[in-house]
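ugh ok fine here u go
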Amino acid sequence: MADMSFWDHLDVLRRVIFRVVGVWIGIAIIYFIAMPFLFDNVILAPCQNDFIFYELLRKVGLYFNLNDDFFTQEFKLSLININLAAPFMIHISTAFWMSVVTAVPYLFYELWLFIKPALYPKERSGVRKAILVGTVMFYIGVLLGYFMVYPLTLRFLSTYQLSPEINNVISLNSYIDNFMMLILCMGLAFELPLLTWLLSLLGLVTRSTLRTYRRHAFVAIVIVAAIITPTGDPFTLAIVALPLYMLYELSIPMIKEVEREKS
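structure:
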């Protein structure tokens, strides 16, 4: 690998890109075929009153004798389509984005194979751990976004009324755009430890810096959580803010391990 020229490296990268794109397209075709089932049972599931998280809230409310609407609300949402081509385009785009999410482990695997020959043995161990942690954390963020954050956001925004004279009618495009954006944002937000670790390798972030700015980070995380989940209640805010802050704290020992390797 060390004897390869720039053009050889470029050719290897080209093959990596082709393989990744090929896997994405292959998975997207499978999702395209299965989309009618997936759309009804997965993507539109948060619109139904029997969605698993709504059931959980009702059980929690019943167990602790909580009568607030947050725990007892019955919720069901019907969508409309106002664009002739929207169902077909959403069929394609949803299959593609679902394939992107599914192919993340393969993407990281190809990235690992590409950079592995250029790393020292100690560096390989650290990068391998970082890629594994990054993959797991991405899916934890996606699952948290799907099962908790998006249902709460959907339930709040779809029932919020600026005036009794205005009826909320949610379009298919609006639902899908928010669905994809929020879930992908949650997955990317959970990459914070990996991002911090990479920044530390570049010398842009240190362990002492993260410790010094703990309070600032907490305020920033609460603001981000409030933007992602505009429900206004402390419970929903905590669902997003606490995991993100735990990720921030998790980033500190990750940098510590890198510093030990350098010493």
